[in-house]
Design a protein that fits this description.
The chain is of the alpha+beta class. Helices cover 57% and strands 8% of the residues.
Length: 223
């Protein structure tokens, strides 16, 4: 197991940063966390380690930066791979490919709907909420009756998706719907995930997230 210096650059409401925190917790990796001011004053370290996108998360392992959350998760799983550490990716190549497909689908579709639900209004906001709910229903079908997306194993897709649950309350209030009513099995899965210390220790309070979003709406002049 690698015991070298590990640093994570992040921002507290970033669901992508939460993914990395959960993965590191699951693996039992000790790391130093550095909070970034991503809106007003990005650090020289962030600009140096992610000069292309200038975004968090960035994982720095032995002075070598790794960017983009899915890429980081795969790196963590490969590097910290001793028998005592749980596997994040499935052993079967097909299951791995399927998990990566769902993560990519989520990042391109559901996450975009989430932003539109708080950053827009009127018909655009309503359309985003409708698409978001329909996407959750598709995910619920994929989950089925399993405790986690990979069955008994808490894995990549669970880690990728669970951070966004702290935004559910915000979406519900802003768009007037109820996640539990629309996708009850997803909410059962959320509660199951929160029983893990890696999740409960890595995800902020939903009400603080809501207050943060209200501040951003005010900043951008979105009423």
């Amino acid at each position: 197991m690698a015991h070298q210096e590990v640093v994570l650059l992040g921002f507290w409401t970033s669901s992508y940063v939460m993914r990395v925190k959960i993965a590191l917790e699951e693996k039992g990796v000790r790391y130093k966390y550095l909070e970034e001011d991503i809106f007003h004053n990005k650090s020289p370290l962030l600009l140096k380690t992610n000069p292309v996108h200038k975004k968090v998360p960035v994982l720095i392992h032995n002075d070598k930066p790794i960017c983009e959350s899915l890429n980081i998760l795969q790196y963590i799983d490969h590097v910290w791979n001793d028998e005592a550490a749980p596997k994040l990716l499935a052993e079967d190549p097909y299951d791995r490919a399927k998990a990566r497909f769902w993560v990519d689908c989520f990042d391109k579709k559901i996450a975009d709907c989430g932003k539109k639900m708080w950053a827009s209004k009127g018909e655009e906001q309503e359309a985003a909420a409708t698409e978001f709910i329909e996407s959750l229903k598709v995910l619920e079908m994929e989950l089925g009756e399993k405790p986690f997306f990979e069955g008994e194993h808490f894995g990549l897709l669970d880690i990728a998706f669970i951070p966004f649950s702290c935004r559910f309350y915000t979406y519900e209030i802003l768009c007037n719907f109820n996640v539990e009513k629309e996708v009850p099995k997803i909410m059962e899965w959320v509660r199951r995930c929160y029983q893990r210390d890696s999740v409960s220790n890595s995800i902020p309070d939903q009400y603080k997230v809501y207050d943060f979003v209200l501040e951003k709406k005010k900043m951008y002049g979105i009423s």
